[in-house]
Design goal:
The protein is built from eleven helices and 13 strands. It is an alpha/beta fold. Strand 12, helix 10 and strand 13 form a beta-alpha-beta unit. Helix 1 packs across helix 2 and helix 1 packs across helix 4.
């Protein structure tokens, strides 16, 4: 007598018990009749009991089959309950939106409309590198960011869906001369040292993007600064350090700072929706559908003619893993 019985074998047994017909039971389970018959025979061997009496005209439960049926139903009900607790709408789905005010919040709101039965929870912590480790560990479900900037070992455990080419901008101290411009040409930052998250282990993909963008343009990446959480602290550190910061055009307003879009070329932050491979939850489908819907409606994946993005990122943004 085995210590463990494969639930698949019990499902085959219950289906045949209720249909009393192998062909109908196989159709109900979407399996071949031969596979169903094989599973029933295997269960009989493992239990050491004949569960069905079979003739050319009918199938009937034996006494042992009648005895097994209520147990099998209880086991399958418990398994279904267990699976639902971890993959169904009852389990909250935690989605990292990076910062309040970004377009990712709109995606989550639309996903809530598409799946009102799901509890889709938002959190706000910057950095896809940090989020990736948490997704792999099961502490976070989905996030947004530059997938190409992740270490290949992280990418191998994650799936992604391209969402947006997000135009980049520079956040300047309010009294910086470049605030007189409506948009800042990238070459106008030559000689500047721009903050891009250097030293923050959660945002390695963003710092890498800055290095690629600034290479050969005479623009430096600022050394690590204290990690500021919240607009007040960010504004205070920025006022103290006096470094412009590389951000995206939807970056929330900060005290004592002015945001200007970058042009000539327009640098683009390639954003993907990222989640752990194998994650099963109806909320994942809702978030993916919402992201695809908004991206199509608003042209988020259309690159401007003068847009800049690393070649490796462009390739990944044309794929879905």
């Amino acid at each position: 007598m085995p210590r463990d019985v494969d639930p698949r074998l019990l499902r085959a047994f219950v289906a045949v018990s209720e249909e009393l017909h192998f062909t109908r039971a196989a159709a109900r389970l979407y399996v071949a009749q031969q596979a169903l018959s094989r599973d029933v025979r295997r269960l009989e061997r493992e239990l050491g009991a004949e569960l069905f009496s079979r003739t050319t005209r009918q199938v009937a439960l034996t006494a042992d089959g009648e005895r097994l049926l209520p147990y099998a139903r209880r086991v399958l009900a418990a398994q279904d309950e267990l699976v639902a607790a971890f993959t169904g709408p009852a389990r909250p789905l935690l989605v990292d939106l990076n910062s309040p005010g970004l377009v990712f919040g709109r995606i989550l709101e639309r996903a809530r409309e598409l799946a009102p039965e799901c509890e889709l929870m938002a959190r706000f912590e910057s950095g896809l590198t940090g989020a990736a480790a948490e997704m792999i560990a099961g502490r976070l479900d989905m996030s947004f960011g530059r997938y190409a900037g992740l270490d290949p070992a992280l990418r191998s455990a994650l799936a992604q869906q391209p969402v947006r080419y997000e135009p980049m901008a520079v956040l300047l101290p309010s009294d910086h001369p470049l605030t007189e411009l409506d948009a800042v040409p990238l070459d106008a930052l030559a000689g500047e040292t721009v903050y891009a998250g250097a030293g923050n282990p959660r945002t390695l993909e963003w710092t890498d993007l800055a290095h690629r963008l600034f290479a050969g343009r005479g623009i430096g990446v600022a050394p690590p600064a204290p990690l500021a959480v919240g607009p007040e602290e960010f504004g205070r550190i920025m006022a103290k350090k006096r470094n412009p910061a590389l951000v995206v055009v939807d970056f929330p307003a900060m005290p004592g700072a002015e945001l200007r879009p970058l042009i000539d070329p327009v640098p683009l932050s390639p954003v993907s929706l990222v989640w752990r491979k194998g994650l099963i939850h109806p909320g994942v489908t809702a978030v993916r559908s919402a992201a695809a819907e908004l991206a199509a409606a608003e042209g988020w994946l259309e690159k401007p003619a003068d847009g800049w993005v690393p070649a490796t990122d462009a390739l990944i943004m044309m794929s879905q893993i």
